[in-house]
Amino acid sequence: MTADAPRPPAPAHRLPLRWRVMDRIEAVAAALWPAAFRRATPWAFLAPALLLVGILLIGLGYVISDSLHELNPATYRLREEYSLGNYAAFLDRPVYLLVLWRSLLAAVLVTAITLVFAFPYAYVMVRTRSGALRKLLLVSLFLPFFIGQVVRAYGWLIILGKQGLINQALEGLGLPAATLIYTYPAVIFGLVQYMLPFAVLMLAPALTAIHEEVELASESLGADWLRTFRHIVIPMAKPGLVGASVVVFTLTLTDFAMPEILGGGTNDFIASTIYDMFFQLSNPGLASALAAVLVAVGSLIVALVFRVAGTGTLGLRSGS
Amino acid sequence: MTDLTRLALPRRRFLQGSAAAAAVLAAPGILRAQEKPAELIVRAWGGAWGDALKEGVGDPFTAATGIPVRYDFTEDNEIKPKIWAAVDQGRIPPIHVNWDTTTNATISALRGVTVDLSDLSNLEGLLPLAKPVGLDGYPIVNTYAYVYVCAYRPEAFPDGAPTSWNVLIDPKFRGRIALYDDGIGFNPISVIAGGGTVADIPGNMQPGWDFYEKLRINEPLLGEDADFTNWFQNGEIDVACTISVNARAAKQNGIDVAWTVPQEGCKVDTDGLWIPKGLPTNEEYWAKEFVNFALSREAQEKWCSALGLPPVFPGIEPPADLAGDPSYPTTEADFAKLVSIPSPVLVENQPIWFEKFNEIFQG
Questions:
Q1: Cβ pair A265:B351 closer than 8 A
Q2: How would you label B177-207 residue by residue, b for 16+ Cβ within 10 Å and e otherwise?
Q3: Distance (Å, rounded) from C-alpha B353 to C-alpha B356?
Q4: Distances (CA, A) of B162 to A57, A229, B315
Q5: What 3-state DSSP class applies to A266?
Q6: Could you say which residues of chain B have pLDDT below 50?
Q7: Which of its termini does chain B have fewer beta carbons within 10 Å around, N or C?
Q8: Is the distance from CB of B178 to CB of B257 less than 8 angstroms?
Q9: What is the DSSP string of A103-121?
């Protein structure tokens, strides 16, 4: 047979159903999104996220704008003229600075304590050879997500209350009842318990990325487990640690429910104060100023962390 | 010359005819204005409060008109900006009737979002308490008075009820006392308990702030209505400043709670009903009918008896368990023993007092 000879017709056969469905989908996609639009494809995927961020920015714009108008108590409307009065009120009243400081301190404490607990949890979950243990740790990790923050806080009231389980046990042992709730440590405790799964979820991918052989190599070169952990695991897990820190820090800084429920009304965070200004005192100007300060302080700290330690698992490339 | 006597009759006939024609032409509009809505949404407080409104006003109103009443238990402070935004943006407000504190309602009236209720037929003959102070007309109508009593656990007071608010600064009760988290209900009393007088309010609140400084050392819990019930039920507190309704409801539910009016007195205040602007005409009409019904003797008797509060309809006997109770004022002499601060003073000073309260207790 020569090269020019016509080829025999291909035998007729039906393509698998899945292929045909995919072909149809591709045809519809090509009709809806022609090849000329391909350069815009990444933007199309980004569009929903950009829309959400855009809405957020518009909201933030309104917040900043409202923060520049003082309340007229005669009409309970914001005055027309621009003013820095709400920011001056924030600086004049020590209570606002104190509550902001309390929120920041809590964010730092909760982040540090949570990482201490989350790291070994994530490490064991990633490294264990026992499938049963891994499943148990995963289930224990995800179970709290099905229980809302408010319900969990009320759960702590039942356990830590003056007539709660712990105090009943103390009473049974002939010991005096302890004050375990409506205190700052109680709020920190509740927040750590709430943040733990977030931190583990941020740490696990970073730990998975560290090949076990690297640790073995370190140990084979004479390093004990502690030195390997300190000089190999921790530095290599830095992206996860940074990501977890930022997530836990920002969530704690803006938390509302735990301080409200476990704080007994005397351990408010800045979010509670913003709520009070907005809803109880009907002063959206001052509430917006406090919110703007919170956003600015939180953003500055996170930017500083990114600058010093990189964006961690939150970034596309380490160190970017 | 025109004969006026002849013209008089045709003119009268003309006028009668015109009136009849106008009535015929206007009838669809009037009928539309009275067209019943599918439901009325009334914002209310939950628990014993909501039950009392349903039993005393909502259910009888539905029985009389056929209009179902739905209750919206959004917190009073949270519904306020939603209504304000709806009115400002020309949207239909999320509720038809707002059951609100007089102070909050006064703020909404100042904002200009309330419908004038001056034309309600049942306003006539009500106690002067029904009329909001410092406002023109009836942008809100007060429906009853209530008292922030000293509620206590009798077991913690074997020698009898506390006689003074100084019990709140007694170290014996450290960590076992409670106040509202915005100082509402106690700010004026703190002035008297701190050695001042009613005349000091609002000009000189320092005695009150001094009293709060001492109270802070006693580690109070700060919360809302529902918290007080929980705290008493769980044995977390022994004494609290709370509305008598909460204490009475807790007692009716088997919680060991009693209440008293200490020698310094208790703050007496009012709640009211108001209708937001911007409702369709027929819905506003029936919302007004609802408020009007709530002011009738029948509704006031049932509603306020269930709450255990003195109504604005005169001559209604108190519930048997509250006869002679100082937290159920009915006469001028009863009210004189309590501390009443006019709403305009509260509206003007509440933000200042709240900030100071926060400064002390968050410090």
A1: no
A2: bbbbbbbbbbbbbbbbbbebeeebbbeebeb
A3: 5
A4: 55, 62, 31
A5: coil
A6: 1-9
A7: N
A8: no
A9: HHHHHHHHHHHHHHHHHHH
ipTM of the complex: 0.82
**Do residues B118 and B137 lie in contact, with contact meaning Cβ atoms separated by under 8 Å?**
yes
Can you give the residue ranges of every domain in chain B?
37-145+269-328, 146-268+337-361
Pairwise CA distance, residues A143 & A197, whole Å = 9
Query: Which token pair is B2?
Result: 């025109």
Report d(CA B55, CA A192) in Å as an integer. Answer: 45
Q: Using an 8 Å Cβ cutoff, are A254 and A294 in contact?
A: yes
Alpha-carbon gap, residue A96 to A270, rounded angstroms: 8
First to last CA, chain B: 93
B37-145+269-328 shares its CATH topology with B146-268+337-361:
yes
- What pLDDT score was predicted for residue B6? 42
**pLDDT value at position B5?**
41
pLDDT of residue B34: 79
Read off the DSSP letter of residue B180.
E
Residues from chain B contacting residue A268 (CB–CB below 8 Å): 358, 362
Chain A residues 60-79 with a CB less than 8 Å from chain B: 73-77
CA B43 to chain CA centroid, Å, is 12
Top CATH class of B37-145+269-328 equals: alpha beta
Q: Closest to A266 (Cβ–Cβ): which among B347, B354, B361? A: B361
Contact A249, A302 (CB under 8 A): yes
Residue type, B324: G
Q: What is the mean pLDDT of chain A?
A: 91
Exposed e or buried b per residue across A115-139, where buried means at least 16 C-beta atoms within 10 angstroms of its C-beta: beebbebbbebbeeeeeeeeeebee
Q: Nearest 5°: phi and psi at B69?
A: -110, 125
Q: List CB contacts (< 8 A) between B361 and chain A.
A: 265-266
Structure tokens at A102: 């309390």
> Are the beta carbons of A279 and B80 separated by less than 8 Å?
yes
Fold of A88-314: MetI-like fold (1.10.3720)
Q: Look at the domain B146-268+337-361 and name its fold.
A: D-Maltodextrin-Binding Protein; domain 2 (3.40.190)
Preceding amide of B202 cis, omega within 30: yes
Structure tokens at A172: 């049974």
For chain B, the residue count is: 363
Distance from CA of B221 to the nearest CA of A (A): 5
Give the per-residue pLDDT at A6: 66
The first and second tokens of residue B182, run together, are 């915005």
Confirm if A176 and A170 have CB atoms less than 8 A apart: yes
Residue spans of the domains in chain A: they are 88-314
